Task: structure prediction
Amino acid sequence: MDIEVATVVVDCADPAGLSEFWESVTGYEVAEEGEDWMLLADPDDEARVQIGFQRVPEGKSTKNRLHLDLYAEDVEEAAEWLRSLGATQLWVSDDPEDVFITLADPEGNEFCVVEAPEELDEDEDDDDDYELDEDEAELEDELEEA
Result:
């Protein structure tokens, strides 16, 4: 059975307002919207996971049971930029082997800025390791034959 994560949904009081913050953070754009719902998606369709914002009547009362981790090469610089967008800094890790900063979005939902793993940086620099999936390979073969 094939199952994939499609959307992470954030309960909130103001879907439109909160989605503006996350649009700035992620570079995603509004893909769907309704009176009580906003959906953000990667405009380049490179990221498979979308972020949804759903209006709920109750406010946030405790720590999130689920949060997003955002990778950054410079965690301090990223956290400063996020604070300028309206995030609140909550905690800074003092472990040099696990560098991250916990912040909250304008409605108090926690998320972390984490030092990007070295293998991620290496993967981004080396596009030769990319393997085509079956459909992409077939298309490439057809284009070569044409």
